[in-house]
Amino acid sequence: MYTVIDIETTGLSPKKEKITEIAIYVYDGEQIVDEFVSLVNPERPVPYFITRLTGITNEMLEDAPKFYEVAKKIVEITENRIFVAHNVDFDYNFIKEEFARLGFDFRRKKLCTVKLSKKIIPGHKSYSLGKLTADLGISINGRHRAAGDAYATVQLFDYLLKTDAQSKPLIEEMTYHSIKGLHPQFDKKVLDELPEKIGVYYFYNERNELIYIGKSINIRKRVLQHLSNSKTDKAIRMRSQIVNILFELTGSELVALLLESDEIKKHKPIFNRAQRRSVFQYGIYSFYDENNYLRFEIRNNNGNDLPLTSFSSLQSAKSNLSSFCEQFELCQKLCGLYDTQAACFHYGIKQCFGACIGEELPETYNKRAKNLIQKFEYGGDNFLIFDKGRTPEEKSVIKIENGKYCGFGYFEPDIVGNNVRVITESTKPYNDNRDVQIIIKGFLMQHKLKIQKF
Fold this sequence. Notes:
Blueprint: E1 2-9, E2 19-27, E3 32-39, H1 48-54, H2 58-61, H3 67-78, E4 82-85, H4 88-101, E5 110-112, H5 113-120, H6 129-135, H7 146-163, H8 167-174, H9 189-193, E6 199-204, E7 210-216, H10 219-228, H11 233-241, E8 244-249, H12 253-267, E9 282-288, E10 294-300, E11 309-311, H13 314-327, H14 345-348, H15 362-376, E12 383-388, E13 395-401, E14 404-411, H16 413-416, H17 420-425, E15 427-429, H18 434-446, E16 450-453
Parallel strand pairs: 1-4, 4-5
Antiparallel strand pairs: 1-2, 2-3, 6-7, 6-8, 9-10, 9-11, 12-13, 12-16, 13-14, 14-15
């Protein structure tokens, strides 16, 4: 059973815009058996260009129900049915975001008639709904209105189903239910329970042994990528052994990184072994050269030294070090950014004071270089890092004491307020090590999180 859906909106961004109209047709593979069509008050003005496109005016929406008033009907009519739409991610993401604002996790299997059309009837110049239906002789009564476009999508979907006898197996494949190479004991219903949220996931084999640990900002999406991956022998072998999947939500990407790192060290899963699994692969390191100048270089984080800070890509590391070089008036050559035996480029344009050729003494130059190092050192400081929690009411907290990582936890600000003692006591202890130091420093360098000393 399918629900064929189309919406109209105030704009293109699900995060910023709202739905103004929704049409849902329940289609059983032969005919429409139920329907729901309604304008929706977006509780904001409709832009003029949207009115020009859809014909939906602010006056038409004044007395229309708000989304929360039609939400229950949408849940009921789409439940246990595949969500079908032309360019499905647009409609699905808007509806999912509207529900998220209500605190409800809307999740349905989805199917895109654009992708399905390209597989069943290839060769068309355009797969936009208007042009594709025109090519097939399907008329749209009410273009850019939800009911008209949704009904045309039903007709298109019906055409596709009846054109290709293999359309149903193809649909199963596109809705992930015929992923190949899975273990015979793997229950695909597990996939329906996976959240599209941040956290850590765990793969188990038939002996209930933990064989892989990963983290993602979208657990369900990442797991499906694993199960569809046939690019390497390792990926195929791992997929064939998975029998069960568990997960732990973290709410915070930083907490997910820290938990993943700790869990891998603790359990040493077979498919994580001998794998340097760090998002922050490149670091900025400091050292003194033979002339006692304090220098900097970018290296891969695969040694034993702890970098000043880390980055997810070499380009990001170079770009940031270049900015630091200008900010602290450092020498390009001594920062590893200008390979020369002579003076650096900045010396020629009078932005370097000559440390590269010995004109500026180490004592003077190193004072500025040490200021850069201090930017990344939290030394013996005690502080808390705050981030999102697992629910809207919750916050996550990471504790650093005497410059060492102590662990993380969760608290509800509305209950504990700013009571630092209670907040710190909410943290669960975890081990400090080089890898978590790299994770924390790298993440703080690339993200702005609230930090509070205690």
